[in-house]
Specification:
It holds the Pfam family ADH_zinc_N. With 348 residues, this protein is of the alpha/beta class. The protein contains eleven helices and 18 strands. The chain folds into two domains: 203 residues, Medium-chain alcohol dehydrogenases, catalytic domain (Quinone Oxidoreductase, Chain A, domain 1, Alpha-Beta Complex); 130 residues, 3-Layer(aba) Sandwich (Rossmann fold), CATH 3.40.50.720. The strands form four sheets. Strands 3, 5, 6, 9, 10, 17 and 18 form a seven-stranded mixed β-sheet that branches. Strands 13-12-11-14-15-16 form a six-stranded parallel β-sheet, with helices on both faces. α4 crosses α5. The protein starts with a strand and ends with a strand.
Length: 348
């Protein structure tokens, strides 16, 4: 079958890969219909390289069941499905206490086992969810990043009428903006240096956009909130700089949740660090997109909100490309040859 395989930093190739087959009774082989490029895929390509040389990359996707093991009863060949890419052990202390996102053996397809940038991929049956007919394939390809965003918000005490600031309007930030509105936030502030991202943020539900080039995000947010700050600040940029600045945005007694991953040290100036102590902030780290019972309410809630049309991800999608153009798409995204939101790849 055709697939995108990562051999090293900057070395992504379109070519042949081994076709997945049913080997255990609880497995499902899925024909991939649409797959999304994640920021973590770009980091693997640009900075980190593969866990395993020549691994099929990708973990955000949707498709149709091709084959199932003998023990699989909830889906059948021909069914449209969503698929959670996280593989958890189910037996470690974290899994047993109902926190699979903290599984010590947690991995994701596309890292140590073949991913979804291919015509077919394979997952345990527990990871596969029937897809309601009202959800299009391209929409369903964004279920996993949506689950990442809502997983982070579930950690917080965000309530209807609250206020939220989202630092970074990449895909996770944009989904967080829309989820914050679905949680009932009265005012959502979107913060980014890219005006086009801020434009999409407005389409995703942001009430006020902040461009910090000429005046700091902190100064603008304080002016907008009469010096109080917001109930919840979300770091979704994955930047070492914003990972420090985010502490200045919540009100006293407010919350911070980290969804971005800075691939570098985070130096924190005293001004920002003291906000944690003096304002008695609650700080959360959010990892992955699963909870118990696996794969969790992040997935079932996303499916419900997409099926009713309340969660609309279409403004995020900027490119729809054949899988064969994957290597060029990665290079263009790294070199910012165009404005890229969510890029979807379609196996041929």
């Amino acid at each position: 079958m055709n697939a995108l395989k990562l051999y090293g930093i900057g070395d992504l190739r379109y070519g042949q890969a081994k076709l997945p087959i049913i080997e255990m009774e609880d497995e499902v082989v899925i024909r991939v219909k649409a797959a999304g490029i994640c920021g973590s895929d770009l980091s693997r390509y640009r900075k980190l390289g593969p866990y395993v040389e020549g691994m099929v990359l990708g973990h955000e996707f949707t498709g149709v069941v091709e084959a199932v093991g003998n023990a699989v009863t909830h889906v059948s060949p021909g069914d449209r499905v969503a698929a959670c890419p996280a593989i958890v052990c189910g037996t470690c202390e974290s899994c047993l206490r109902g926190a699979p996102s903290q599984c010590i053996h947690l991995t994701v397809i596309g890292s140590k086992q073949p991913g979804c940038f291919a015509e077919f991929t394979k997952l345990p049956a527990a990871n596969v969810l029937p897809l309601p007919e009202g959800i299009a394939y391209e929409t369903a390809a964004l279920i996993e990043p949506s689950a990442v965003a809502v997983h982070g918000l579930y950690l917080t005490h965000l309530r209807p009428g609250g206020s939220v600031a989202v630092l970074g309007c990449g895909n996770i930030g944009l989904l967080t903006i829309q989820w914050a509105k679905l949680f009932g936030a009265e005012t959502v502030y979107a913060i980014d240096l890219n005006p086009r991202k801020l434009s999409v943020a407005k389409q995703m539900g942001a009430d006020i956009v902040i461009h910090p080039k000429k005046k700091s995000a902190y100064d603008q947010l304080m002016a907008a909130t009469d010096g109080n700050g917001v109930d919840l600040a979300v770091e979704a940029a994955g930047s070492s700089i914003t990972s420090a600045q985010v502490f200045a945005l919540p009100r006293k007694g407010g919350e911070v949740v980290f969804m971005g991953i800075p691939y570098g040290d985070v130096p924190i100036e005293r001004f920002y660090f003291e906000k944690i102590v003096r304002n008695e902030l609650k700080v959360y780290g959010s990892w992955n997109a699963v909870s118990a019972p696996f794969p969790g309410k992040e997935w079932t809630t996303t499916l419900h909100m997409m099926s009713t049309g309340q969660l609309d991800v279409t403004p995020m999608i900027t490119h729809r490309l054949p899988l064969s153009e994957g290597p060029k798409a990665f290079e263009d995204m790294i070199n910012q040859k165009d404005f890229f939101g969510k890029v979807l790849l379609y196996p041929e």
